[in-house]
Amino acid sequence: MTESDAVVRVSVARLAVVTVSLPLGAFFLCIYLSLRFNFDLSTATHCGVPNYLPSISSAIGEFVPQRYIWRAAIAVHCAPRFLVASMYYSFMNRILPNVAFYRNAVKVTTLLNVVENVALLSLSFVSSKENYDVHKVSFILFMVCSELYMVLTCLLLKDNARRFTTPLERLAFVKKKQLMTANLASFVIALYFFYRHNKYCEPGMYSVFAFMEYIVVLTNMAFHMTAYYDFHNHDLVVCEWKTASS
């Protein structure tokens, strides 16, 4: 016979907080350092007009130590992200009806979640200056997969909200809807100001684009942070297996 002893027990809610805190802290630190020490270079654009905020790509990929701070945070946070993606696979299969359509939809959402994470790794470790094409494709993949993941997750849960088993799961769903809406709105607004900046080269337009870009990233982080509620009473347990004689 066999028996197992828990070697490590970690609250998934606490793990979610730590996982999101890594890129969140690195994000604000990189923005601060770029404004403090690399203001002129980080806010410069092809238009040569005054701007006051760096784009995210500039803040996290063009200067040292910002580049290494961001890469370290993303590298460490990605492993728990893959774990949470697998947990959401089980969570969605529990919430949604046991029919082929929903089973396939859960596989699609999980794939989107995983590809989003891989694309984030890629765009973080390959800056636009190092390889523009790889960075561009990674960024597009990240945005497409993250937006589709949020929308599809909310649509699937909306029709099956009655199957939630705890108030925290219902709270998580409400916050998911709010954050998805804010994320999509911010993304559209960011595209508008990016267009205006490139079309008319108006002073400050790129700064507004950069600020809306920040909101897109922050709402994306907050959306993933809802795992804190969905898995609030769950623990991650690492066991040591032993063979016991009868």
Automatic annotation (TrEMBL):
It comes from the Eukaryota. The keyword NADP does not apply. It is a multi-pass membrane protein. GO terms for cellular component: endoplasmic reticulum membrane; Golgi membrane. It is found in: Golgi apparatus membrane. The keyword Cell wall biogenesis/degradation does not apply. The chain crosses the membrane at residues 12-35, 68-89, 110-127, 139-157, 178-194, 206-223. This is Post-GPI attachment to proteins factor 2-like 1.
